[in-house]
Design brief:
DNA polymerase, domain 1, 2 domains, globular, single chain
Length: 375
């Protein structure tokens, strides 16, 4: 199976050139939402190929790992041709997020993988065991490569990693451009002057830039600042993650009262400070609210705390603060793991040693694909 059939998220050189041109960048940090970009892996033909390959060979099927290495090499070759250095931050999680489940047991409850096209249980188990082995290989091997970081978070959603890495300065970003590969709109929280989102769904490709997150979310032009994206998602809900918003408030009704809502909440930093200190989302609540949709939002928050709960689920800033001030051993362990991966003292290996180690594990790649990552 050709690697691009599993990881088909390739941008064109024209798109990469457009990103580099925004700041005349000579260095790009490329964040890869691994499971999101590997959606093709869960299609029937890919599953059957992985299962069949695993049964026929005495070695583990490593097509997922190989697909990622080819993807990284593609970008390295691009960088060589353009005189741009490329770094890679790969992020993904395994298992359900304890943090989110403790806030709302219904979080992502409908996101269950089905019976995989009627494949019997033995083959399904084989497929998932192969995937997990590939993810472990990504974590172990990629973190030994220069300019590559692989963050595998057990039992915590990893979507906030680009936000945390960039806002907490875990990698040197001075003068660099950042692009995140994901079609998950949660990642739009990371948008800034030097951070962009490349989204690809089927044949549709889109580059999202700062100032456009709410317009993209509502599919209509709006001047609402990007910082209010988590608030909007908390009010209208997020069906993809089973986040239930305020009843009867959708995008259209939210927009009809957005300005008044924002004046009542204040800045999002102020909102986060209040939520983190167990306060109300609202800075002030007028005695009389003429807009009936705004009244619905306020009443639901006062009575049920819907927005507060949802903000804890969707806001990358609140997750980051929970990580910085952990109140459970689980979160302490997650913080230590992130610090370890992004430590300036981490050790990398040579291309020769990497190829030898992979071959001993039964992983055979095109020689040039690894060599490109060491240039």
């Amino acid at each position: 199976m050709h690697p691009s059939s599993l990881l088909s998220y390739y941008p064109t050189y024209a798109i990469l050139d457009e990103i580099a041109s925004f700041g005349n960048y000579k260095e790009l940090n490329i964040f890869i939402d691994l499971k999101n970009t590997l959606q093709t892996t869960y299609m029937k033909h890919a599953i059957e190929n992985i299962i069949d390959s695993s049964k026929k060979s005495r070695y583990l099927d490593t097509s997922v790992f190989s697909a990622l290495i080819s993807f990284l090499s593609y970008h390295k070759i691009y960088g060589m041709k353009r005189g741009i250095n490329t770094n890679f931050i790969i992020f993904f999680e395994t298992g359900q997020s304890y943090y989110h489940k403790n806030i709302d047991k219904g979080y992502k409850i409908s996101r269950r993988i089905d019976d995989l096209y009627g494949i019997d249980k033995k083959d399904r188990d084989l497929f998932f065991s192969v995937l997990q082995a590939n993810f472990q290989l990504v974590e172990k091997a990629c973190n030994k490569m220069p300019g590559v970081w692989a963050m595998r978070l057990p039992n915590l959603e990893a979507d906030f990693i680009p936000y945390y890495v960039l806002t907490r300065n875990l990698i040197n970003k001075e003068g660099m451009g950042n692009v995140i590969y994901s079609n998950d709109h949660d990642l739009w929280q990371c948008l800034s002057e030097h951070t962009f989102i490349f989204s690809k769904a089927g044949k549709t490709k889109k580059l999202v830039k700062a100032g456009n997150s709410l317009s993209n979310l509502f599919k209509t032009e709006t001047n609402i600042p990007d910082e209010y994206l988590p608030l909007a998602m908390s009010v209208i809900g997020d069906t993809g993650d089973d986040v239930i918003g305020v009843p009867s408030i959708g995008p259209k009704r939210f927009l009809q009262c957005a300005d008044q809502l924002m004046s009542m909440t204040g800045t999002m930093d102020e909102v986060y400070d209040r939520v983190a200190n167990r306060g109300t989302v609202f800075k002030t609540i007028p005695d009389s609210i003429s807009n009936k949709f705004l009244r619905t939002i306020v009443d639901d928050e006062v009575k049920n705390g819907t927005i507060t709960k949802n903000l804890k689920l969707v806001s990358f800033e609140l997750i980051s603060r929970a990580l910085e001030n952990p109140n459970t051993t689980q979160m302490i362990d997650k913080r230590k793991l992130i610090e370890q991966v992004f430590s300036s003292e981490r050790e990398t290996t040579t291309a020769k040693s990497m190829k030898k180690a992979l071959e001993m594990a039964g992983v055979f790649l095109e020689e040039a694909s690894i060599d490109f990552l060491y240039i």
